[in-house]
Amino acid sequence: MITFEGVTKTFADGTKGVDNLSLTINSGEFFVLIGPSGCGKTTTMKMINRLIDPTEGIIRIDDNHVQDMNIHKLRWNIGYVLQQIALFPNMTIAENISIVPEMMKWSKQDIRSRVDELLTMVGLEPKTFRDRMPTELSGGQQQRIGVARALAGNPNIILMDEPFSALDPISREQLQEDIRKLQKEIKKTIVFVTHDMDEALRLGERICMMREGAAVQIGTPEELLNNPKDEFVKQFIGSRAPKDTQALSEQTIKEFIQHNHDYLSSFIQTEDPSLQMTVNEDGALDELYYQTKKYPNEASVSVDSTAAEVYSLLQTYDLPALPVTDSDKLVGAISYKDLARMAAKGSVMN
Ligand SMILES: Nc1ncnc2c1ncn2[C@@H]1O[C@H](COP(=O)(O)OP(=O)(O)OP(=O)(O)O)[C@@H](O)[C@H]1O
Ligand SMILES: [Mg+2]
C-alpha cells in the first residue's frame, strides 16, 4: 500500500508541482494517474521512489515512511518505466535487463534464467533477443525491454510514466493488453501515468484525475464515467459518458461497433479462410461453408444480435465465426476473438 498524506512539492523557483495531495494506492492495484500536461503526474510518481523529495507531507509504503527507508533498497523494490525508454546503447538486451539483479548480487545463473523468463513474459523470444543491442530492436520491442527491466528485481511496485505514448496504436493496444494480463498474474502494485483517457479506462482499476497538483476525483472507471465530479472531469472523459450501465451480454454488435469505430474492420472480414460465405444478387447471405461443409443460413447473426446470442449460436453450430447481416445484407463475420474484444472493451464503452 502506498499512501500520500498532504503531500506538497514546491520547486526552488516557487512552482507547486504537487499541492496537498492525499491518496491511497492499494497493494496489487492498477492505479492510473491522469490529467493535463503539467498537472503533477511525474512529480507524484518520482516522489514514490524519491527521485524527488516532498517539501511537505508524508509518503508511506505499507507503514514505512519512504524518507526513512534505505534509498537503494527502496529503489530496488520499485520498478520504473520511463516515458522515453532509455536502454543503455552499449549493453546487450540481457545486460540491460540484468542491471538491478546485478546490483542485488544475484548469481550469474539466476540472472541468466531471470532474463530469459522476463523476455518470454514480455513476448520476446529469448534466443533471438538476449544478445542483441538496443538499436537492433524496434521501438515497441525496446519498450517491452523497458518493462522487463523494471520487473527484473522482482519489485512489489512498478511505476510506469506514459510508457506507451511513443507507440503506434496497434503495438500500444497489444502492450496494454499484455501489461494488464501480466498485472493479474503477478499481482504487482502498478502506478501508471497517462494523459489518454481511453488508456486510463482500459487499464485502471482506479483512476486519479489530477489538476494543478491536486486530485480532483479518484474512483473506478465506472464511477468516473457515471458520476464525474465536475466540468473538468466531464470534459476529460469527453463523449464517453454512458447512458445506463448495461450488461455486456446485452450489448449488441451494432452498439459495440458504434462505440469502437476502429474495430469495424475486424467484423468485416473473417481471418479464418476456412469460413466461406457467398452472397446472392440482393447482397444477402446465400451459402455458408466451413471447411467445405455446408451450414444452414440460420447459422448467422444480425448486427442487432447481442453478445450472448452470438456466443450461444457459435456454440450451437460449433463454428469459429458467424456471418453478420444488417437488414438482411451480409456485412461481415464475428468470431470468438471479436467477442473477447467486446468483453475487454465493452464494460467501459457501453
Ligand atoms: N525541477 C523543476 N523546477 C521547477 N518546476 C518544475 C520542475 N519539475 C517540474 N516542474 C513543474 O511542476 C509542474 C508539474 O510537472 P510534472 O512533470 O509533474 O507534470 P506532468 O503532469 O508529468 O506533465 P506531462 O504530462 O507534461 O508529463 C509543472 O508545472 C512543471 O513545470
Ligand atoms: Mg510527466
Automatic annotation (TrEMBL):
<keyword id="KW-0813">Transport</keyword>
<dbReference type="InterPro" id="IPR003439">
    <property type="entry name" value="ABC_transporter-like_ATP-bd"/>
</dbReference>
<dbReference type="InterPro" id="IPR027417">
    <property type="entry name" value="P-loop_NTPase"/>
</dbReference>
<dbReference type="GO" id="GO:0006865">
    <property type="term" value="P:amino acid transport"/>
</dbReference>
<comment type="subunit">
    <text>The complex is composed of two ATP-binding proteins (OpuCA), two transmembrane proteins (OpuCB and OpuCD) and a solute-binding protein (OpuCC).</text>
</comment>
<dbReference type="GO" id="GO:0005886">
    <property type="term" value="C:plasma membrane"/>
</dbReference>
<comment type="subunit">
    <text>The complex is probably composed of two ATP-binding proteins, two transmembrane proteins and a solute-binding protein.</text>
</comment>
<dbReference type="GO" id="GO:0016887">
    <property type="term" value="F:ATP hydrolysis activity"/>
</dbReference>
<keyword id="KW-0129">CBS domain</keyword>
<keyword id="KW-1003">Cell membrane</keyword>
<keyword id="KW-0547">Nucleotide-binding</keyword>
<protein>
    <recommendedName>
        <fullName>Quaternary amine transport ATP-binding protein</fullName>
        <ecNumber>7.6.2.9</ecNumber>
    </recommendedName>
</protein>
<dbReference type="InterPro" id="IPR005892">
    <property type="entry name" value="Gly-betaine_transp_ATP-bd"/>
</dbReference>
<dbReference type="Pfam" id="PF00571">
    <property type="entry name" value="CBS"/>
</dbReference>
<dbReference type="Pfam" id="PF00005">
    <property type="entry name" value="ABC_tran"/>
</dbReference>
<feature type="domain" description="ABC transporter">
    <location>
        <begin position="2"/>
        <end position="237"/>
    </location>
</feature>
<dbReference type="GO" id="GO:0015418">
    <property type="term" value="F:ABC-type quaternary ammonium compound transporting activity"/>
</dbReference>
<keyword id="KW-0997">Cell inner membrane</keyword>
<dbReference type="GO" id="GO:0005524">
    <property type="term" value="F:ATP binding"/>
</dbReference>
<keyword id="KW-0067">ATP-binding</keyword>
<keyword id="KW-0677">Repeat</keyword>
<dbReference type="GO" id="GO:0031460">
    <property type="term" value="P:glycine betaine transport"/>
</dbReference>
<dbReference type="InterPro" id="IPR000644">
    <property type="entry name" value="CBS_dom"/>
</dbReference>
<feature type="domain" description="CBS">
    <location>
        <begin position="291"/>
        <end position="349"/>
    </location>
</feature>
<dbReference type="InterPro" id="IPR003593">
    <property type="entry name" value="AAA+_ATPase"/>
</dbReference>
<keyword id="KW-0472">Membrane</keyword>
<dbReference type="InterPro" id="IPR017871">
    <property type="entry name" value="ABC_transporter-like_CS"/>
</dbReference>
<comment type="similarity">
    <text>Belongs to the ABC transporter superfamily.</text>
</comment>
<dbReference type="InterPro" id="IPR046342">
    <property type="entry name" value="CBS_dom_sf"/>
</dbReference>
